[in-house]
Amino acid sequence: MPLSLSVLAEWGSMAVMKVLILGGTRAGRELARLLVASGHDVVSSLAGRVTRPADIAGRTRVGGFGGVDGLAAYLRDEAIERVVDVTHPFAEQISANAAEACRLVGIPLLRIERPSWAQHLLASNWVWVDDHAAAARTAAAFSRVLLTVGRQSLRHYLELPHVVARMVDPPDHPVPSSWQLRLERGPFTIDDERALLRDTAITALVTKDSGDPLTEAKLCAAAELDVTVIILRRAPAPEGVPAVGTPQEAAAWVATQHPQITTSGKAKPTQG
Ligand code: NAP
């Protein structure tokens, strides 16, 4: 059970922790903001996939670590005390690397995991697939497809002729000239999504089970307009890594994991 935010505020002001946030998500930016506001020393790590990353509180570093060994060396060299994995649910490699590197170095790791959309009210209407190959095969039966799978996954769909592909940065490889690229960063309202689906005569939407409430509008618009949703299932999260649902809970975890020194000089017990 996470501590209340008032307890976090009281304790967070008394000790500085060096925290690595594996980010690239809105939740990662929100956690950085909360931890910096509590006085922690925060480094957010980004893969470097996006050319115009949003502003992040605290320090940032960009680029891969060089696998498990590289990440473990970074944790040691930088004397990181806590790691929070706030990467996207489909960023499976970095999450697996974080679990292994933290185990090797003996540093506590927490994961922020958004609930899956498998429990969404509309979930039983969607076509659930295990991978991009299956998504592309299913999408081939539809006349016009909206892809919101990220630019790195577009190569799986190159045989589809009539595609609108939405992403933040342009793809780093050619796509068919019949495709329409929309270089946009969300969130999008339901009115935006309804207009996009209607104006481009979309009949199927391919997306990932990100569970992000801020990207949910397209699913509701698709239901209204009878657009088929083809959705990629998540891989299981790394085993043995504790998880919370929100940046607020993760901030409370950082505060409660540390043997704190109170203003009276007495140590508080470590919790968590
Ligand atoms: P991935 O397949 O899990 O990771 C591939 C490699 O990229 C990792 O092994 C690591 O390289 C490097 N990497 C990934 N995330 C990193 C981070 N936060 N900091 C430093 N290095 C990182 O990841 P991905 O799916 O390409 O996603 C990359 C980033 O984009 C993640 O940070 C994720 O949160 C964000 N993102 C992903 C998606 C998605 O759908 N996959 C959507 C939105 C945002 P080394 O092995 O060299 O350390």
Mind explaining what this structure looks like?
The chain has 272 residues and is of the alpha/beta class. The protein has 2 domains: 5-113 and 237-256, NAD(P)-binding Rossmann-like Domain (Rossmann fold), CATH 3.40.50.720; 117-232, Rossmann fold (3-Layer(aba) Sandwich), CATH 3.40.50. It has helices at 5-12, 26-37, 67-77, 92-105, 132-139, 190-199, 217-224, 247-256; strands spanning 18-22, 41-46, 59-62, 82-85, 109-112, 127-129, 145-148, 163-167, 180-183, 204-208, 228-232, 243-244. Helix 3 crosses helix 4. The protein is elongated and about 55 Å long. The termini are close together. Bound molecules: NADP nicotinamide-adenine-dinucleotide phosphate. Residues 22-25, 45-47, 49, 64-67, 70-71, 87-88, 90-94, 97, 150, 152, 208 line the site of NADP nicotinamide-adenine-dinucleotide phosphate. The site of NADP nicotinamide-adenine-dinucleotide phosphate has 25 residues, from strand 2, helix 3 and helix 4.
